[in-house]
């Protein structure tokens, strides 16, 4: 089974800065079936990125995904206060795994 | 518009069986490429995948929980049911169901908190 390791655990940044979140897989993710979700307290996960780099419907272009194989990155440009949340990567398909999450705090 | 909603007991006793229902609208589970899946999320922790079922009745389970889980669908009622046997306090979590447009999970319900306690 694939293990997804996210880093850092917490990121504390100011509005307007850029957040770079990492998701590393213990083995190659098939077909780049790698998604990123945003979750705010008391809410369900919200799909941001799928296929490692495709933005979901309605997601601002400040959110971008990159990577392939075992190393993936979510970049959030021009941080806004509303971006404060926990971000999870997910390997999907016939088997599903989640990373441990990165908490993004806006100062 | 796709919506999914979880329902079931909020409190179960240890050793009991949990039965959760996902009721959905805006899609049909008889349409090729469509599926419904379940995840759970203990308080303050990351989500954990449980099971999924596809339009063709193909079912997949988390290897670590496979022996305790059963997922079924009722296409006519637009429902998917998940049962988990032998509940334990460590199973306390918010349980979510989600819509799958193969292979991507693109919509989630609001979740239902299940507490396991005597």
Question: Please, could you describe this protein's structure?
Answer:
The complex is a heterodimer of chains A (107) and B (118). Chain A has no helices and eleven strands. Chain A has strands at 4-7, 10-13, 19-25, 34-39, 46-50, 54-55, 63-68, 71-76, 85-91, 97-98, 102-106. The model of chain A has no long low-confidence stretch (mean pLDDT 96). In chain A, the strands form two sheets. In chain A, strands 2, 4, 5, 6, 9, 10 and 11 form a seven-stranded mixed beta sheet that branches. In chain A, strands 1-3-8-7 form a four-stranded antiparallel beta sheet, with no helix packed on it. Chain A is mostly beta strands and 107 residues long. In chain A, a hairpin with a 3-residue loop joins strand 5 and strand 6 (54-55). Chain B is 0% helix and 54% strand. In chain B, strands 2, 4, 5, 6, 9, 10 and 11 form a seven-stranded mixed beta sheet that branches. In chain B, strands 1-3-8-7 form a four-stranded antiparallel beta sheet, with no helix packed on it. Chain B is globular. The model of chain B has no long low-confidence stretch (mean pLDDT 97). Chain B has strands spanning 3-7, 11-12, 18-25, 34-41, 48-54, 59-61, 69-74, 79-84, 93-101, 104-108, 112-116. The chains are: A mainly beta (107), B mainly beta (118). At the A-B interface, strand 5 and strand 10 of A face strand 5 and strand 10 of B.
């Amino acid at each position: 089974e694939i293990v997804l390791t996210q880093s850092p655990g917490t990121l504390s940044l100011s509005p307007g800065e850029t957040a770079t979140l990492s998701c590393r897989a213990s083995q190659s993710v098939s077909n780049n079936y790698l998604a990123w979700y945003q979750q705010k307290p008391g809410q369900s996960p919200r799909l941001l990125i799928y296929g490692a780099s495709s933005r979901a419907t309605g997601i601002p272009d400040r959110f971008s995904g990159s990577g392939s194989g075992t190393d993936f990155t979510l970049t959030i440009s021009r941080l806004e206060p509303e971006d404060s949340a926990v971000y999870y990567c997910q390997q999907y398909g016939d088997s599903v795994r989640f990373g441990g999450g990165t908490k993004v705090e806006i100062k | 518009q796709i919506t999914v909603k979880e329902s079931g007991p909020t409190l179960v006793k240890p050793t009991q069986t949990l039965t959760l229902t996902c009721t959905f609208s805006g899609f049909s589970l008889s349409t090729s490429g469509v599926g419904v899946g379940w995840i759970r999320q203990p308080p303050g922790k990351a989500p954990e995948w449980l099971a999924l079922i596809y339009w063709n009745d193909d079912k997949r389970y988390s290897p670590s929980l496979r022996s305790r889980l059963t997922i079924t669908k009722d296409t006519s009622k637009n429902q998917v049911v998940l049962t988990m046997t032998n509940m334990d306090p460590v199973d306390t979590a918010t349980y979510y169901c989600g819509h799958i447009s193969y292979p991507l999970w693109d919509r989630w319900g609001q979740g239902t908190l299940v507490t396991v306690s005597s």
